[in-house]
Write a structure and sequence with these properties.
This protein is mainly β. A hairpin with a 2-residue loop joins strand 10 and strand 11. The strands form five sheets. An eight-stranded antiparallel sheet has the order 15-19-12-9-14-7-6-27. The chain contains four helices and 27 strands. Its cofactor is Fe cation. Pathway: Amino-acid degradation; L-phenylalanine degradation; acetoacetate and fumarate from L-phenylalanine: step 4/6. This is Homogentisate 1,2-dioxygenase. Belongs to the homogentisate dioxygenase family.
Length: 437
């Protein structure tokens, strides 16, 4: 089903008439199903931001054994593990993003690299990476802390949710919102990035003077149709609950994906990045990179985001009298860059698909020296930019901290962080005597 934030209604064709008529919670649901509401917002939120869906399931979610603590290794929301370090950071794919043997999304496959804020006060973000080659069998994850925005870089993911199935490939993204249970099947070595936001949900950015159309269009977002599996797991089905930054497990005898029908506006969704309508400068100078925003998670301050998801897709460069690559910059926001495929235009060496970089608040950053020299002397003609490439950015108004695992060792000083190479220092040359005259 297509659309962003729509009121959807879906039922599995194997169970016709599963949706009640005219009400949400009848005394007896069709087929003896249980009605269960999943709320993604407070009951009293304005109608425009109220998020909820009704699910009609074979057994209710409440039938589970008590939650018990679950051992976790590199998933954390402790932002004080490493001393603050404002330097630019580069994570090389081969050093930090290698695939382990027999790892799944949760069992060692999900690692926190940086973040900020607090899950208890419901304000903040975390950036994780995942590497896995084994599917989640008879287990699922439920994130009570926030939303997951999943960006595959290698390998397809078949994500089973209470709302239906979602197949996500590289150059597509998927959002699993707070409280939605999901399990992941993989088809070989898989790797990617996860942006987690606490307390708010992702929205489409306001378009302002752009007008009614452009950037990520609502009709290109896809939500799964209802699908259920009615199966009893004799050994017990494991529900892993991420709560206040920690993991807990609970056993139940049935699968959580037993929803025969549902309706509402709170559901998982996916989006193909190739559908992004690029807005760009056609005269001179740069438009700000905010024109590449796909999704935003707003803060309470107008125009300031807890997190923006921004992409840099293939496009035309035609600006005259302009240094066309990204300009040198100091920013009050934090910027985490990732690369899905190709070569990023401003850093062709060292920044490889599957790697990442972090530019902290007010830390200078920009293209490397080779890129500067090439672009400064290039003949300015219309040219294709970023063909065969898809880079992205998680940008936040919060000042993100690197985790111990992200720092690369156990030293509190953050040793192991690799600074990005900037332009080599060039001695200033005095102007010719004629110029001085």
């Amino acid at each position: 089903m297509s659309g962003f934030g729509n009121e959807f209604a879906s039922e599995d064709p194997r169970c016709p008439g599963a949706l009640p008529e005219g009400q949400n919670n009848p005394q007896v649901c069709p087929h003896g199903l249980y009605a269960e509401q999943l709320s993604g917002s407070a009951f009293t939120c304005p109608r425009s931001s109220n998020k909820r869906s009704w699910l009609y399931r074979i057994l209710p979610s409440v039938r589970h054994k008590p939650f018990q603590p679950y051992k976790q290794s590199n998933l954390t929301h402790n932002w004080d593990e490493v001393e603050p370090d404002p330097n630019q950071v580069l994570w090389e794919k081969d050093r930090y993003f290698t695939l382990g043997d027999g790892s799944v999304i949760i069992n060692g496959g999900l690692r926190t690299i940086c973040g900020a804020g607090d899950v208890k006060s419901r304000n903040g973000i975390a950036i994780h990476i995942y590497t896995c080659n084994t599917s989640m069998i008879d287990r699922c994850l439920n994130n009570s802390d926030g939303d997951f925005l999943i960006v595959p870089q290698q390998g397809k993911l078949l994500i089973l949710t209470e709302f239906g199935k979602i197949l996500v490939e590289p150059k597509e993204i998927c959002v699993i919102q707070q409280g939605m249970r999901f399990s992941v099947e993989v088809f070989g070595d898989s790797r990617g990035y996860v942006l987690e936001v606490f307390g708010v949900h992702f929205e489409l950015p306001d378009l302002g003077p752009i007008g009614a159309n452009g950037l990520a269009n609502p009709r290109d977002f896809l939500t799964p149709v209802a699908w259920f599996e009615d199966r009893i797991v004799k050994g017990g089905y494991t529900v892993i609950n991420k709560y206040q930054g920690r993991l807990f497990t609970s056993l139940q005898t049935f699968l959580p994906f037993n929803v025969a029908a549902w309706h509402g506006n709170y559901a998982p969704y996916k989006y193909n990045l190739d559908n992004f309508m690029v807005i760009n400068c056609v005269a001179f100078d740069h438009a700000d990179p905010s024109i590449f925003t796909v999704l935003t998670a707003k803060s309470l301050r107008p125009g300031v985001a807890i997190a923006d998801f921004v992409i840099f897709p293939p496009r035309w460069g035609v600006a005259n009298h302009t240094f066309r690559p990204p300009y040198y910059h100091r920013n009050c926001m934090s910027e985490f860059m990732g690369l899905i495929k190709g070569h990023y235009e401003a850093k062709e060496e060292g920044f490889q698909p599957g790697g990442g970089s972090l530019h902290s608040a007010m830390t200078p950053h920009g293209p490397d020296y080779e890129c500067f020299e090439k672009a400064s002397n290039a003949k300015l003609e219309p040219e294709r930019v970023a063909d065969g490439t898809m880079a992205f950015m998680f940008e936040s108004s919060l000042s993100m901290a690197v985790t111990r695992w992200g720092a690369g060792d156990l030293q509190p000083s953050g040793q192991g962080i690799l600074p990005l190479l900037g332009a080599p220092p060039q001695p200033l040359q005095p102007p010719p005597s004629e110029s001085r005259k």
